[in-house]
């Protein structure tokens, strides 16, 4: 999985492309979010538009990122989860945990 | 018509081999006539069962094997995933959707399997280990 970071005001948008799965995407996600948190950036918007799917390890890492951001007085929000990713968020009830947006401007304004 | 087709994979307990089982299962599901979305569901369910077998059942010991048997039948596709570990009690697994477990970072594999295929069963083979049996029904017009 590829992850690139954009700076928009005090929010960091992470554009993810690929799969958030065990031993690969979950590690990339962990490293990128840790990089932001250690750099003092705890308002994080994960753009999931180009993430085809996640497995339980990837979902677990999403939750871990959310918890770590809270430890840093920030939060992780989600942008444009694709069909399968959204299905899995619903199945696991994590849609109740993550604020999820379809519009980036609206997402950015919510922080 | 692909009914009667069976593919068997026997792999060492290594996380990087999870993709192989997933992609094989997804391809078999497409061969069975499932559409792209449903085939991905089968692939993901098998993926979760293999992750459990590798990480929990066989505790990532490469000398222990995971056996994945994929079969297309007249009305269903079946995946059997067997490890060589000590097994576990699936009935004792806590619901990861409960308020107290919602922010746990693990424990969602079984829930995902149940949500992605039509039936999930567990069996303890006499020769040891644990076997998960996943069943996806095929509609009449897919045969």
List the helices and strands and how they pair.
The complex is a heterodimer of chains A (111) and B (143).
Chain A (H helix, E strand, L loop, with lengths): L1 E7 L2 E10 L4 H14 L4 E12 L1 H16 L3 E5 L3 H9 L8 E2 L2 H6 L2
Parallel strand pairs in A: 2-3, 3-4, 4-5
Antiparallel strand pairs in A: 1-2
Helix pairs in contact in A: 1-2
Chain B lengths: L5 E7 L5 H14 L4 H22 L7 E8 L3 E7 L26 H8 L2 E5 L7 E7 L6
Antiparallel strand pairs in B: 1-2, 2-3, 3-5, 4-5
Short description:
The complex is a heterodimer of chains A (111) and B (143). With 111 residues, chain A is of the alpha/beta class.
Q: Give me the count of strands of chain B.
A: 5
**Structural class label of chain B:** alpha+beta
Radius of gyration of chain A, in angstroms, nearest whole number: 12 Å
Radius of gyration of chain B: 15 Å
* Overall pLDDT score of chain A: 97
Strand order of the largest sheet of chain B: 1-2-3-5-4
Folded structure, characterized:
The complex is a heterodimer of chains A (111) and B (143). Chain A has 4 helices and 5 strands, in the order E-E-H-E-H-E-H-E-H. Chain A is of the alpha/beta class. Chain A has a 5-stranded mixed β-sheet. The radius of gyration of chain A is 12 Å and the shape is globular. Chain B has 143 residues and is an alpha+beta fold. Chain B has 3 helices and 5 strands; from the N terminus they run βααββαββ. Chain B has helices at residues 18-31, 36-57, 109-116; strands at residues 6-12, 65-72, 76-82, 119-123, 131-137. In chain B, helix 1 packs antiparallel against helix 2. Chain B is globular, with a radius of gyration of 15 Å. Chain B starts with 5 loop residues before the first strand and ends in a 6-residue tail after the last strand. The mean pLDDT of chain B is 93. Classes of the chains: A alpha/beta (111), B alpha+beta (143). At the A-B interface, helix 2 and helix 3 of A face helix 2 and helix 3 of B.
């Amino acid at each position: 999985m590829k992850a690139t970071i954009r700076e928009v005001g005090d929010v960091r948008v992470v554009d993810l492309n690929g799969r958030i799965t065990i031993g690969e995407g979950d590690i990339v996600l962990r490293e990128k979010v840790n990089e932001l948190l250690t750099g003092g950036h705890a308002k994080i918007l994960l753009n999931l538009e180009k993430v085809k799917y996640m497995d339980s390890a990837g979902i677990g890492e999403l939750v871990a990122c959310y918890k770590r951001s809270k430890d840093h007085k920030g939060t992780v929000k989600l942008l444009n989860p694709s069909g399968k990713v959204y299905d899995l968020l619903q199945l696991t009830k994590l849609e109740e945990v993550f604020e999820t947006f379809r519009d980036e401007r609206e997402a950015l304004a919510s922080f | 018509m692909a009914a009667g087709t069976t593919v068997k994979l026997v792999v060492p307990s290594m996380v990087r081999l999870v993709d192989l089982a997933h992609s094989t299962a997804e391809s078999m599901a497409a061969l069975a006539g499932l559409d792209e979305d449903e085939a991905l569901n089968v692939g993901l369910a098998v993926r979760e069962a293999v992750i459990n077998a590798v990480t929990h059942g066989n505790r990532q010991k490469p000398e222990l094997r995971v056996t994945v048997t994929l079969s297309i039948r007249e009305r269903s596709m079946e995946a059997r995933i067997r490890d060589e570990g000590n097994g576990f009690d699936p009935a004792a697994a806590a619901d990861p959707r409960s308020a107290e477990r919602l922010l746990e970072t693990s424990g969602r594999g079984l829930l995902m399997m149940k949500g992605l295929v039509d039936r999930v069963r567990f069996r303890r083979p006499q020769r040891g280990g644990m076997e998960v049996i996943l069943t996806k029904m095929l509609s009449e017009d897919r045969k």
